[in-house]
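Hey, quick one: can you model this chain's 3D structure?
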Amino acid sequence: MKQYSQACDENREPILAVIREAFAGTHNVLEIGSGTGQHAVYFARQLPHLTWQPSDLIENHASIHAWRDDAGAENVLPPIELDVTSSTWPNRKYDGIFSANSTHIMSWEAVRSMFDGIGKLLQSDARCCLYGPFNYGGTFTSDSNRQFDNWLKRRNPASGIRDYEAIAELAIANGLELESDNEMPVNNRLLVWKKI
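Sure thing. Here's the predicted structure for all 196 residues.
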């Protein structure tokens, strides 16, 4: 029921250092692809001024509920079902959006749909924080990322590490501008976008 990701524990402190500043004036964060639920409860506990809304496919909700129940974090809401390729997105605005390790798992069409949704849900002058590995100029930033990309594509040919430039095109098309590109451990990045 309660799933565990070692990567979540390993990357949470560097992510927190960035989102603490990015979400300093934020009140309501939608997390896209909450996975196990670990990030939701950890970040919400560290940032008590936030109300954190986890979301994911329905099959991942049991683990999110388990982490939420164990943590007793009142500022973590029950997870909502969200398939980014669906036309059914929350009928409200958020002043913060967070997603970790999602764009390389999704198909490119799903990534495109996700940014369409972000553009509609994010309030003006609000931040979207996107964590994960990215290529730059069509080139892998490390041999380990190249190997990871090969593993992803063997598992699902529609997945794979995305080019930053292609992500940026989607972001710009949906009213976002890059505020910062932060180096993270293990060849990951944390991109902070601001809604214009």
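One thing worth noting: The radius of gyration is 16 Å.
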